[in-house]
Amino acid sequence: MKWFVSAIAFLAIQVVSASPLEKRAGVNDVATLGYATLNGGTSGGSGGPTTVVTSLSALTSAVAGTITGNTVVKVGSNTSVLGRNAVLNGVGLRVINVNNVIIRNIKISKVLASAGDAIGVQAAHQVWIDHLDLSSDRDHDKDFYDGLLDITHGCTGVTVTNTILHDHWKASLVGHSDSNGSEDVAITVTYANNVFSNLNSRTPSFRFGHGHIFNNVFDNNNDGINTRDGAQLLVENNVWTGTDKPLYATDEGFAVARGNDFGGASNTAPVGSFTSAPYSYSLVAAGSVRSAASSAGATLSF
Ligand SMILES: *[C@@H]1O[C@H](CO)[C@@H](O)[C@H](O)[C@H]1NC(C)=O
Ligand SMILES: *[C@@H]1O[C@H](CO)[C@@H](O)[C@H](O)[C@H]1NC(C)=O
Fold first, then answer.
1. Is residue 278 reached through a cis peptide bond, with omega within 30 degrees of 0 on the bond before it?
2. Which ligand 1 atom is at minimum distance from the Cα of 98?
3. Domain around 147
């Protein structure tokens, strides 16, 4: 299926009612924010042919192939996977050992731990995750489901925008192990304009690399941003409610924090050295972040 490698795949697996917040988006959009804009940028399948798929089997052949049966779909290089009212129930996406991938406007829910994370990005470079809705529930123990959005094995150039992560135990793990520093010190991830809500932990948990986390909303999570193992985070203009640990460190992680509203709690992370992101961006004032993030989730129309 090599000729599909630069295809843009549309999913229409399940129809859900259109959101009143729906925003117009283009199939040839490229990443315009954060680390995904560096190193030649992230264009996915922009400019390539468009393939419309309406079944899981068609999706798997369009984007690259399956692993672990039909519960995980592997996405190839130079590919955009764009949802049109798309819902993947119990089906995760994997971005592994590839470059230049865009995933936008898809709801993924209740991916069992036996299948792994809802979105798993590993050893991949230039990846834009945008306008996703990722969730499960908290009715089971914390290992019934795995992560919602895990970014591991030395990924660089990853941007996560306009995405809702909600109702889950372990949300977003960046760097999978305390002993993977040689590969993970290179990690670069931007999180902007996302909503993290009703999560237990990992909002995100960030090891070794550089992370820029700005203009996100964090509501009613047990835990906050955990900077670990020498990670250098730049944390700007985010807002929190309902946690007493909005930003903290484990094993000598660091953060430069400015312009945040910690919801009455305190940042306890040691001050780091990451004071300036290597790209331009605009910050929304903390008081306006919540309204700016109100169109997060799978609210696009193509
Ligand atoms: C992706 O596109 C780049 C740039 O055109 C090309 O060098 C690379 O071989 C492509 N990768 C695959 C797997 O097709
Ligand atoms: C990091 O992960 C890679 C890929 O799994 C592995 O080959 C390597 O040995 C790991 N390194 C460490 C220090 O754990």
1. no
2. 13
3. 4-301
| Per-residue tokens: 77 | 């290089």
Asked whether 166 and 221 are in contact (CB, 8 A), the reply is no
Pairing of strands 232-236, 210-214: parallel
Q: What is the CATH number of the domain that holds 146?
A: 2.160.20.10
For residue 207 and ligand 2, the question of a CB distance below 6 A is answered with no
Tell how many helices (H) and how many strands (E) occur in the chain.
3, 26
Q: Which of 104, 202, 207, 228 is catalytic?
A: 202
User: pLDDT tens digits for 146-196?
Assistant: 899 999 999 999 999 999 999 999 999 999 999 999 999 999 999 999 999
pLDDT tens, position by position, 76-125 = 899 888 888 888 888 899 999 999 999 999 999 888 888 889 999 999 99
CA atoms within 13 A on the CB side of 196: 34
Overall domain count for the chain: 1
Count CA atoms closer than 13 A to 182's CA, side-chain side.
Answer: 1
Q: Please, what sign has the CA dihedral across residues 168, 150, 283, 200? A: positive
Residues 159/128, Cβ–Cβ less than 8 Å = yes
Q: What is the Å distance from ligand 2's center to 111 Cα? A: 25
* Buried/exposed 168-202: b ≥16 CB within 10 Å, e otherwise: bbbbbbbbbeeebeebbbebbbbbbbbbbbbbebb
From residue 135, give the alpha-carbon distance in Å to each of 25, 62, 117, 120, 297. Answer: 23, 25, 11, 14, 11
Could you tell me the CA-to-CA distances from 113 to 73, 109, 144 in Å, in that order? 15, 12, 6
What CA–CA distance (Å, rounded) separates 105 from 302? 9
Which atom of ligand 1 is closest in space to residue 78's alpha carbon?
1
